[in-house]
Amino acid sequence: MLILLAAIFVLHIIGVIVLLVATIDNAWWMMPNISTDVWGRWIQTNGVWNLTDIPTGSHYPQDYLQAVQASSVLACIFSILGIFVFVAQLFTLQKGQRFTISGIFQLLACLCIMIAASIYTNQFHLDENFGWYGHCFILAWIAFALTFISSIIYFVLRKKTA
Amino acid sequence: MGRAGPMRGVWLGINQGTVCFLLLSCFEALCRVASSIPPLHFLSPPCTRTRSRVGLFLDRLLSGLRHPSFWELPAKPETMLTLLALASVVLLGIVPEQSQAIVIYTGWERHALLGSDIRLSCSFFSWRWTSEDVTFSWTYRPDGSRDSISIFHYTGGAAYVDNKGPFRDRVEFVGNPGRRDGSILIKNLDFNDNGTFTCDAKNPPDIVGRPSSVRLLVFEKVPIQAGVITGAIIGVVLGLLVLIVVIYYLMRFLVARRVFSLSVSKHGKKKKEGSQQRQGPVPPADPSKIKV
Q1: ipTM
Q2: CB-CB under 8 Å, A62 with B233
């Protein structure tokens, strides 16, 4: 039981780390010498990286960008709250009960990061052939899978020892 | 900016002390609320420790004030002198503020749509009463130019607006000098109105002050400010979460109270029935005894 609990805890922590990297690092879309989204744009000129603002225009809708920012931050918050709730439930649950509230928090985090990644996929860089998706975008989708698995495990798991 | 060094220190010290005390009491109240929520019961031991410390400090303060010897003159002259010096420093700290500079408040930046009207607000803070000779004056400096022209002046109870410059027939005074408000309204904005507007207010004899500027930006379409939507979404979702948790615990508390009151009334009824049964068989026994 202890090993199972440790594995679930480690899975949750890995989910939190992946979410944090995907939210904080500006690397959802990459071009040669440019790494961009969602908070700013890194441009490399003469070997020096400079942080500039994301260009405004019709190909970069500001409101959708802010929605992506908001939901990815919310996913991080829900996942981190989920860790504390899981530890609290470990000590307060009766024997045989399920970790439903932790599961709900992880499910909310999964939902939020799915919203963020979907909006980004659908609204940005639609006609650009000159570039590729960066590591943060891939990590966002991986975080979606990890948090989903984690929440299913919390909904199924029962407390074995008192 | 004009205040004497040591007096400012004393004033700051008093302010910081009050803030500290308020923070401690807020923390204590929060601790009490938090430790009553079941998952956070582990918070109660450290909270009671802080609570006892704050309570002890309060008790000492109040008991000190209530003690009769507090209100008698202390016997030692040194303590009297130090108290007198402290009181005079505090009082002297207040008095020079009456001749402080006048502080003028306008916005920092204003965004407006092409063709709309905009109200540029200007108000001031002064230690003196608002005099009858209060003056407001607005000047305008276009973007990229170094000269500024005057577009509005209020003095002697009358407002004088621009009648020759770029803002002729477009400026209107909408302020209330009696309430220290010197705002103006500019109508029908154009792209040439981009620039910096400076408000200068004088409240005789309080005339030393720094004029404050507001920058006007005219857009065809007002852009979304950075972070407004992000903050709104995050705030609303977290607020809903907190609301749901609060409502859940409230419902549980109310249901538990109702169940408790119901069980108390049931227990009371059962007790009454039990005592009535015991009294029942006694009366018929008496007439038989009397017969015998």
Answers
A1: 0.85
A2: no
